[in-house]
Amino acid sequence: PDRTCVTRTHVANASSATEMAADGGISSLQLPCVFSPKARQYLAVCAQDGRLRIWNTDSKTLHQEYVPSAHLSATCTCIVWGPCRTVKEGPQRKKRKSEAVQVEGKVDLLAMGTAAGSVLIYSTVKGALHCTLDGGHSGGVNCVHWHPEQGLFYSGSEDTNVVEWDLQTGKTRSKWKADRAAVTSLCVSPDGKLLLSAGRVIKMWDLETKEVYRKFTGHSTAVTTLCFATTRPPDSNGLYFLSGAAHDRLLSVWQVREDGKDKNSVVSFTLTDEPKHIDLVASNSKEEAVRLAVVCKDGQLHLFEHFLNGPCKKPLSPSCTVQMSDSKASPLPIPLLAAALGAETRSVMLAYGSHLQPAMERAEIDTTERHVCLTRDVQTSLSVSMETTVSKVKTPIVNTKSKVLVPGLPGHQAPLKGPSTETEKRKKDADTTEMSIAERLHEIDLSAVSGRKGAPKVEASLQTDNFAVLLVQGLESNDASILNKVLQTRQETVIKKTVSRLPLSAVLPFVEELTKRLQGHPFTALPMVRWLKAVLMLHTSYLASLPDLVTQLGVLYHMIESRVKMFHKLSRLHGKLYLLMTQVATNDSSSTVSEVDHTAKLVYEEESSDEDEASGDEALPHDDSDRWEEEEGMEDEEDEGDEEEDGSDSRTEPKANGDEDMEHGNESEEE
């Protein structure tokens, strides 16, 4: 039991250290979640707003909740359970020697490191703050760890220092610089003589002299996990510890050798993602295997069992991988938050679901199978129940003259109509059920804003504010009707203004919702492209700052690549089909055209000589020939007059018959 309590304390530190990012800072996406040592009676979870919630794993209820005074400015960065100790609970009568029973240690103290540089010690027995450790760090606390036996406490910070605290006096006992970068992880050896600290480089310190005993290098990013795997002393070459780094899918095992030749890791455990929570049962001898449970960032649990007796060239894969999913027709994965190994090899305590209301159970896992999937029915409604009295919130009655401002965006007014008659008041008093979110949304009158005249600019802004509020509410409640009402608009200005008014916390869920809708029919997916374009144009800087953007938008990337991949081939096929269809259409139209009548409506022949005139006169009708002869006589007279005026020009340059005929023809046309 003593060995289990000691190793569990180290494991709690490893789980809290996994909350650090690659640059040594605290990751806001990963929240500290730690089981208590020994019996695993409690689960401590720290929320983003700094609230500490302690859940009872037996009754599955909220046992205690603590809100620090500076929980908004100094959020919690790491939490670690202290070693079990005997606690006096009020005055008790003296027992006789025959009634004397060995008192077992209880889980009491819990340490919380804050971003302001202070450490809070919380007592679960008292249900209040035990003490506050201030003045040791000038930067945020990244990691904390308890000494297994003495009343000492260690903390590492952004200011690159490690502080040794005395819990009895609440003051610093010693302080030294541990690294050039921020200290992101700490771990004390089982015998309490050595201390591991890590930033980019892992250092082993002698706690008596505060000098470096060994250095270990091999991680390119900040080390977030440190945990001793054996309890053997270092002089026997049997002391091992494991380490994990941010954005690294390997857990490295290091051996502390007596000759100092321990520059490289001896064993590596392969994972599917970055480790988030680690639980370990250390070995006391070479014949005893090390049991390891690792919860990764992707929500999977990996179980390992290995004998540490020297180097191993190949990375070791997990002996069993556990996943959880819901019991719906199309099952969705349920993320695992933490895991704790039991006394038996098959018994594992699991915490899964949401940080606001985690589900806890002790499961029996068949480790002979490589992959195990557990199906559970997780309730989506959040109902945080306390063991003590629960305060009921009463909704006030709103009159018709008053206006309710919905929290979220300015300019959005939602008039709620109150009861007008006494009968309606009685009915409302008799009905104890409160209005749901859908019923309240139906009460919002958007037509009152659109019906106003004389202020088109104000109308557009209010309409956009309404859309932004409805969009946020639809994303939070996952209501398809609200989302359809907002996304059916096709006006570019409304889309851009609505997207620009979205809070940053709703951008990524909105992109995921658009990705789901884009996977449908192209006709229905076409309006979603406009919304996605507006999001990418207006929130590019926020999306680029996300560390896991590629994994979160992987579905969208694959869908765009698959659709664009066929676009070139489809365009070529469309061109060929267009040419074929136009050719077929022209052939059909040419076959349907009727035969053309080639007979001329009017025939005109020019006269080149007298013979041609005779032949032409014979060919034309009688009335036309007489008219043509009269015109020719008049033309001859005019020609003779022109020749007398011209004089020598007409005599020296005689005209050809063809030219004369052409001139006659032109003159006739002028007449």
TrEMBL record:
Gene3D superfamilies: YVTN repeat-like/Quinoprotein amine dehydrogenase. One of its GO terms (cellular component) is nucleolus. Its main location: nucleus. Residues 422-433, 648-671 have a biased composition (Basic and acidic residues). It is found in: Nucleus. Keywords: Nucleus, WD repeat. WD repeats lie at residues 134-175. It holds the Pfam family WD40. Residues 605-616, 626-647 have a biased composition (Acidic residues). Residues 478-580 form the Small-subunit processome Utp12 domain. Residues 408-433, 605-671 are annotated as: Disordered. GO terms for biological process: maturation of SSU-rRNA from tricistronic rRNA transcript (SSU-rRNA, 5.8S rRNA, LSU-rRNA). The keyword NAD does not apply. InterPro entries: SSU_processome_Utp12, U3_snoRNA-assoc_WDR, WD40/YVTN_repeat-like_dom_sf, WD40_repeat_dom_sf, WD40_rpt. PANTHER family: WD REPEAT-CONTAINING PROTEIN 43 (PTHR44267). Belongs to the UTP5 family. This is WD repeat domain 43. It comes from Iconisemion striatum.
